[in-house]
Design brief:
The structure holds 2 protein chains of 2 kinds.
Chain A (H helix, E strand, L loop, with lengths): L1 H9 L1 H20 L9 H28 L1 H40 L1 H18 L7 H98 L3 H4 L11 H74 L6 H18 L13
Helix pairs in contact in A: 1-2, 2-6, 3-4, 3-6, 3-8, 3-9, 4-6, 5-6, 6-8, 8-9
Chain B lengths: L10 H21 L2 H17 L2 H81 L7 H27 L5
Helix pairs in contact in B: 1-2, 1-3, 2-3, 3-4
The chains are: A mainly alpha, B mainly alpha.
């Protein structure tokens, strides 16, 4: 640098005093172009929401199992712990990425503080030493650029390496969690089927009679309605469906009256039977509906959890590429799927929503 | 196992069919054949919906036994992957620690640069004193020059290590 030569000629101390300036200027020039780090807070937030949502799906499965078999539920809880640990590790990992990115961006923003200190120092120097060829404002600008870029480059290198190198490990983790969620779906489905079968068995006598009586009643009422229509409109076509056409016309009126009496008596008996079973049958139906809803919810939670994991690993892969190529990345797919799980949970746990969530996986 | 439901009429027909199904269930459990368990369970559930009332309970209970065996298989399958999962989680924890360490390192380095600049400020103040004293107090000169060199040396160290650790550093 020319200016150091000039300074050396003027004073033996100038070389010593100018060295740090030269060094930092060189650093600033060395790092060259600007880098910017993506904001990873959104990725960390979505990872946390995904983990929580998957855990809710697990709790649903474990609670259902505990209702029918506490020993197996305890065993499931024990073997599920590493899966939970893996989800926690994904959250800690994405939090660490976001924290490093945030810290680097904050420090880079604070690079002006370096420049301020440096400007003060070069101000002193200007008072003492003739620093020809470089002004204090120029030096402090160089220092600011150097400080900001060095912080960002260091963070970018670390983030890029961490995300790139962990991608294969993450893929294996996600694959295992996905397989475990598939097993969880099997467990939940088996438990609900057991309960549905038990419920059916408990009410099977009643429900069979109830449904038969309802059917008998419906048929009787249809026939009575057809006879009434025939009477009012005198159209034999109304009687075709109730098979009263056979026999001479002269006896039709008598046959219709007999049939009406029989049907009225039958439907009255059926009505009484239905009323007697009504409460029990409604209980059966309510329990059956609740169990079927729980089974659907459990399946939807687990299936959406698996979709979210798939979206997460694709987002992570995109992040790896964006860090190495210094491009932006999208959280849209992951955010949408995670929101889907939350909607499923809310739909079943806080009463029916105005519309069924559109992205429930089945 | 194929069942011709429409050909089952007497209670004896149904009972024999149920007996065959129970045999299949036992075989599936002994063979630890998950697919066979699922298929036999489905048949038993269908049987329980179609069969005379007397035989339903036995069919439902047998289907629940098979269902419990399927649950055990699922729990075992999860357990069987745990060792590998824990190993992978350990690797991710290491990566997470590296990222956290990098964050701390950056904070530390920022602190060191600020300190370096402070040293530089001190250096300049000393230089001012040196310049002022050069004329009449030459005896102190060597000590003051030493202080200057010490301060600048510290800045040099900071700048050098910063370059090595930040600019030229290999990814963590």
């Amino acid at each position: 640098m020319d200016y150091t030569k000039t300074m050396r000629m003027r004073s033996p101390f100038l070389l010593v005093g100018a060295w740090p300036l030269a060094c930092l200027t060189a650093l600033a020039l060395l790092v060259g172009g600007c880098v910017s780090l993506p904001n990873l807070q959104g990725f960390a937030d979505e990872t946390s929401r995904m983990s929580l949502a998957i855990q809710k799906g697990y709790v649903q499965g474990e609670s259902a199992l505990a209702r029918v078999d506490t020993a197996r539920a305890r065993k499931l809880k024990r073997v599920w712990k590493p899966t939970q640990d893996a989800l926690t590790a994904l959250v800690a990992y994405s939090d660490a990425l976001a924290s490093l990115s945030n810290k680097a961006n904050d420090n880079a923003k604070g690079a002006a503080a370096f420049a301020g200190k440096f400007q003060k120092v070069t101000g002193y120097l200007q008072g003492v030493l003739p620093l020809s060829g470089i002004g204090s404002g120029e030096v402090s600008r160089l220092v600011e650029i150097a400080a900001r870029q060095l912080i960002l480059i260091k963070a970018q290198k670390t983030l890029s390496a961490a995300v790139r190198e962990s991608q294969p490990v993450m893929e294996q983790i996600v694959k295992i969690i996905d397989l475990n969620l598939a097993e969880l779906a099997v467990i939940h489905s088996e438990v609900m089927e057991q309960q549905i079968s038990r419920n059916w068995l408990k009410y099977s006598g009643i429900s069979a009679v109830y449904e038969a009586k309802m059917d008998e009643n419906k048929k009787g009422l249809n026939e009575l309605a057809a006879i009434a229509k025939y009477r009012s409109q005198r159209k034999r076509a109304f009687l075709e469906e109730i098979e009263l056409m056979a026999g001479p016309d002269s006896t039709l009126t008598k046959r219709l009256e007999d049939r009406e009496r029989l049907l009225t008596a039958q439907t009255r008996t059926a009505d009484e039977a239905i009323k007697g079973f009504d409460g029990a049958y409604k209980d059966y139906q309510k329990i059956n509906t609740d169990l079927t809803d729980q089974m659907t919810q459990g399946r939807a939670l687990v299936d959406n959890g698996r979709l979210a994991l798939g979206a997460w690993i694709r987002t992570h892969d995109g992040l790896s590429e964006s860090l190495s190529m210094r491009q932006s990345f999208s959280l849209r797919e992951l955010a949408t799927v995670v929101q889907g799980i939350e909607q499923v949970y809310e739909f079943y746990n806080q009463g029916p929503a105005p519309a069924r969530p559109t992205n429930i996986a089945r | 196992m194929e069942i011709k439901w429409t050909e089952l009429s007497s209670l004896n027909d149904w009972a024999l069919t149920l007996k065959r199904m129970l045999g299949e269930a036992e075989k599936a459990i002994k063979a630890d054949d998950r697919t066979a368990k699922e298929n036999t369970k489905k048949l038993l559930l269908e049987f329980s919906r179609r069969a005379p009332f007397k035989l339903r309970e036995t069919a439902v209970n047998a289907s629940i036994d098979l269902s419990n065996s399927i649950i055990d298989d699922a729990i075992e399958a999860i357990a069987g992957r745990n060792e590998e999962l824990l190993k992978l989680v350990g690797e991710i924890k290491d990566t997470t620690s590296d990222v956290k360490n990098a964050e701390e390192l950056i904070s530390f380095q920022v602190k060191r640069i600020m300190e370096g600049l402070d040293y530089m400020g001190k250096t300049v103040v000393i230089l001012q004193e040196v310049q002022k004293d050069l004329g009449d107090k030459n005896a102190d000169l060597s000590n003051k020059v030493k202080s200057v060199l010490d301060s600048v040396q510290q800045l040099h160290t900071v700048a050098k290590s910063f370059k090595a650790e930040v600019v030229n550093a290999k990814p963590a």
